[in-house]
Specification:
This protein has 16 helices and 17 strands. By secondary structure, it is an alpha/beta fold. The protein folds into two domains: 424 residues, 3-Layer(aba) Sandwich (Alkaline Phosphatase, subunit A), CATH 3.40.720.10; 51 residues. Strand 5 and strand 6 form a beta hairpin.
Length: 620
């Protein structure tokens, strides 16, 4: 699609280096095939000649719900994160690093694809059937034609592995005999969590319930006794022998048990989106998979972090001396609720269970980084650390203890559309001997930049050349390799969109010394704060708890007012009129050029639990 005037004016200078035209002729496709063949040949020749010239290894750490205010290197003085702080001091720290979505599933999709998740429907919508994938045994997933970082690196002869949280669709076959999940997206191996952690995973959960003070259960008990009496009376009237009566009674009991199970565990369950009881939800979704097979069910939470670290260390040990480079994606279970820690990490923090979780995650980062050093991999491994979105500031445990993250002075948090607290996240790159150490970059960057940046740093072809069949996939991320490798912060103008599901809530313009942010919708918070209530399932509904200000957008210059403490820029100023006019035109052109498909997460037939796809471990 042709770029509009505003897109051309602001983005064309750097867009040409990261996008290939969506109009692809047959000749162009053939040329891409030849380029890919030549590149693969070059890689093989290089490997045959020795490993010193091979592309670098890649290690990505992705935290879950970690607030930018939780780390020492971003100003926290009460939670100890020495290993992550060391990673920042030995590399490049990004202070204006932005998630593409404020929720797990869409944000993680954007990290791996370099594209807004609205482009391929992996977001909820205003009706809010769901905003993340909730079941292992559902049919919703990242579309198979989307190209991930793992797919691109596999095409560049990398060995790829995912350890930890996935949450982008399981692809389970009949009876859950194989849930291939990430293996469909370029990962050669997987050990971890197919969905996410839920508070219900903290067991045990009650299976048998028959409260006789409940009218529904009173009716069930009466029906049960009436059915059994009816079977006995009818059998005697018909002169049935005992050997006939016993099967009839067993069948009657089984039918009533199934009715009880439906009432108790999978029908009219209130206050829970998954429409399942906590017991059934835990049994159906709390599991660890290894390459599509269940190896632990339910998950033993305490010690999970250490088991994931051990898996990553084993991967590094196995591939330390390979001819092929590797890509290891270590995706933490921390610091998502529920809070859990190994015994030696319980009670170590001044911030209760949440602080313990942050410090345990930091310990895990240190253990994996130590493995790089032990196996002689530090000098030729690019390391990247970030979080999928900001902290869940409303999260409170059952005992009233706060278990959500801290977003520093930024307002808002997880699940909110445009506020900084939900999308401004930690970010750092380290590549010893190649990237400067102790460098801080204040220029706005995105988690979607990961794929083009890593390919650029590794001197690999762009994704569209590695995979010519994906030449029509327009990336929304861009390479920030020059920002990371030079001492200049001068960049071309850049515009970023901030969505609530499929609706644009805010637009950001980075231009020269200014970073403007235009709100089209503002989150409606509780008085005196920037959150919406308290509770482990509580959060702001960015599709409902908002005020529409698109008739006169609110504009901030974040370079002057980074925490949006002051009033918005006055609409009477020339600055406001010029910037808002420019960004409104950009949104108009974007909406005309890019059509979002229907929401996959709002498709109940895809999202709901499918018992015939349910994986079960009979030996766990």
């Amino acid at each position: 699609m042709a770029a509009g005037p505003v897109l051309t004016q602001l983005q064309e200078p750097y867009q040409a280096s990261r996008h290939i035209s969506t109009t692809t002729t047959v000749a162009h496709t053939c040329r891409m095939c030849v380029i890919r063949w030549l590149w693969c040949t070059l890689v093989l020749v290089t490997v045959a000649g020795g490993t010193s010239s091979r592309p670098p290894n890649i290690l990505v750490f992705l935290a879950d719900d970690l607030g930018i205010g939780d780390l020492g290197c971003y100003g926290n003085t009460t939670i100890k994160t020495p290993n992550i702080d060391r990673l920042a001091s030995e590399g490049v720290k990004l202070t204006h690093h932005l998630a593409a979505a404020p929720m797990c599933t869409p944000s993680r999709a954007a990290v791996l694809t370099g594209r807004y998740p609205s482009r391929y429907g992996l977001v909820g919508n205003a009706s809010m059937w769901s905003i993340v994938i909730t079941h292992v045994a559902s049919r919703v997933a990242l579309p198979l034609d989307e190209v991930t970082l793992a797919t691109a690196l596999s095409a560049a002869n990398y060995t790829t592995a995912l350890v930890g949280k996935w949450h982008l669709g399981s692809h389970c076959d009949f009876l859950g005999r194989n849930c291939s999940g990430p293996l469909n997206y370029g990962f050669h191996s997987f050990f971890g969590i197919p969905v996410t952690l839920f508070q219900e995973f903290r067991g045990p959960r009650v299976f048998w319930k028959f409260p006789l003070d409940d009218l529904e259960y009173q009716g069930l008990a009466g029906s049960w006794m009436a059915l059994l009496a009816g079977v006995v009376v009818t059998g005697r009237m018909l002169g049935l022998r005992r050997r006939m009566m016993v099967p009839l009674l067993l069948i009657s009991n089984l039918l009533m048990f199934l009715l009880w199970f439906r009432i108790t565990h999978s029908s009219n369950i209130k206050n829970w989106l998954a429409l399942m009881s906590p017991w059934l939800f835990r049994m159906a979704n709390s599991m660890l998979l290894r390459d599509g097979k269940v190896v632990e069910q339910p998950i033993r939470l305490d010690g999970l972090s250490q088991r994931l670290v051990q898996e990553s260390r084993q991967f590094l040990a196995q591939h330390a001396n390979d001819d092929r480079p590797f890509f290891l994606f270590h995706s933490f279970a921390h610091v998502h609720t529920p809070m859990f820690s190994a015994p030696h990490m319980a009670g170590v923090s001044r911030h209760g269970r949440y602080g313990d979780n942050v410090e345990e995650m930091d310990e895990s980062v240190g253990a994996v980084l130590d493995a790089l050093r032990e196996y002689g991999l530090e000098e030729n491994t690019i390391v990247y650390f970030t979080s999928d979105q900001g902290g869940h500031i409303e999260a409170i445990d059952y005992d009233g203890q706060r278990i959500g993250g801290h977003n520093g002075r930024f307002k808002g948090g997880k699940a909110q559309g445009g506020p900084e607290g939900g999308i401004r996240v930690p970010g750092m790159y380290r590549w010893k001997g190649h990237l400067p150490s102790g460098t801080i970059v204040d220029t706005p960057t995105s988690l979607m930049d990961l794929m083009p940046t890593l390919l650029d740093l590794a001197q690999l072809p762009p994704m569209q050349q590695l995979l010519p069949e994906a030449a029509h996939k327009e990336l929304d991320g861009m390479s920030i390799a020059k920002l990371l490798t030079s001492d200049t912060t001068t960049t071309e103008p850049r515009i970023m969109l901030h969505h609530c599901r499929q609706v644009i809530h805010a637009v950001r313009l980075s231009q020269g010394k200014h970073v403007y942010k235009m709100y089209l919708k503002r989150q409606r918070w509780f008085p005196g704060g920037s959150q919406c209530g308290w509770g482990h399932l509580q959060g702001c509904n960015c599709a409902a708890d908002v005020d529409d200000v698109s008739h006169q957008p609110h504009l901030y210059d974040l370079s002057r007012d980074p925490y949006e403490d002051d009033d918005p820029i006055s609409p009477d100023t020339e600055e406001y009129q010029e910037v808002v006019s420019l960004l409104q035109q950009y949104v108009k052109e974007w909406s005309a050029r890019v059509t979002y498909p229907p929401s996959l997460l709002n498709n109940r037939s895809l999202m709901e639990w499918n018992p015939w796809l349910q994986p079960v471990c009979l030996t766990c």
